[in-house]
Amino acid sequence: MKDTQTPHIPVVIVGGGQAGLSTAWCLKQQGIESIVFERNRAFHSWRVNRWDSFCLVTPNWQCRLPDFHYDREYGGTDPHGFMLRDEITDYLDAFLDRTAPQLHEGVVVTRVAPVTGGGFTVETSVGSWTCDQVVIATGGYDTPIEPDYARRLSPDIFQMHSVDYRNVDQFPEGGVLIVGTGQSGVQLMEDFIRAGRDVHLAVGPAPRSPRNYRGRDATDWLYDAGHYAITIDRHPDPVKAMTQTNHYMSGRDGGKEIDLRRFHVEDGVSLYGSLADMDGTTVRFLPDLAKNLDDADRSYVGIRDQIDAYIAREGIDAPTEPPFRKVWEPEREITEIDLAGAGITSVLWAIGFRPDYSWIEAEVFDTRGKPVFRRGVTDHPGLYFIGLGWLNTWGSGRFLGIEEDSRYLAGCIAQACADQAAGAGNI
């Protein structure tokens, strides 16, 4: 029996980003009422957690919210360009205006708990609700990652995580050590280079990708070849797919690839291996710079090989490209530096985030605290996740795959509603 004093709604969606609001729209099309709780403002991470020069890494044509594709319903005129931060939020806000969800902003969900007999209690900063089904659309970027040894760094060295970075002017004069070479780290590196700063980069194991290859953007080739349609259950190496850092490249200046060797040669960026430890002004690195650069290049060449194979298989007339060659190799591994002696006055952490699901009281997590599901559907009836990487395909958690994922999840929720109604009718 439902609590008549607590408002009830069929579906609660936690998270007002593109994943949650796409699901709300797909549910509305199914005739299912939902409510979306967002702790900040809709699309908060795009508005606030992006730096001033931020732009998309994938082309605009991949922005495919349900019934609101960039180059169709939205009417975007630069499908092969890369929207800047404010252009992205304009696109998202237009989707919000079009779909008109029941959205409650500034509401923090503090607890989601199963109810005996089915359904859930959802406790928030403005009261409690009950519901039949819950969609978790909070993403995986709750807690910025900084290693414990960051606390041992001298207080004379300024520190910031990428989530708080907006522009170079936030940093004191002097050199900067950027830790991490995922998509954020390498793009922030370029911000500092353009500002004329002395840049030092701790190079991690992130892979890299070509940008334009044989006359087209590499992502265009991969899409046509069916690469992005591969599902996680058909992937040849699903563990690697789900744990590997995103390939780095850039959408800046119309799109370009990032070759860290070239940035060292042409822009004087000092490269080191993975950060291992720090104490006072002493920073230590693993002797893995050469390996990490080689592994990134191996990924780069592998993508080129995939595209070459597709072009050959389909008999496509495309321009040829010269083979890849290294423009620089480290002569030795530098495993320790003194920041003060090197003129480095700040450290910028770009090593990612971890999710926080401590407020969900359901047995749907593995020993590492990660949710277990198939295409977002957990083993706990009525509890779903969306907006996470490789929920189903590479495009899950990105604009490219959100339409397919949200429609699928809405269909599962609609079926559960129908089953519940049929069960009630048989009582």
From TrEMBL:
Keywords: Oxidoreductase. GO terms for molecular function: flavin adenine dinucleotide binding; monooxygenase activity. Gene3D superfamilies: FAD/NAD(P)-binding domain. Pfam families: Pyr_redox_3. PANTHER family: FLAVIN-BINDING MONOOXYGENASE-LIKE PROTEIN (AFU_ORTHOLOGUE AFUA_4G09220), FLAVIN-CONTAINING MONOOXYGENASE. This is FAD-dependent oxidoreductase.
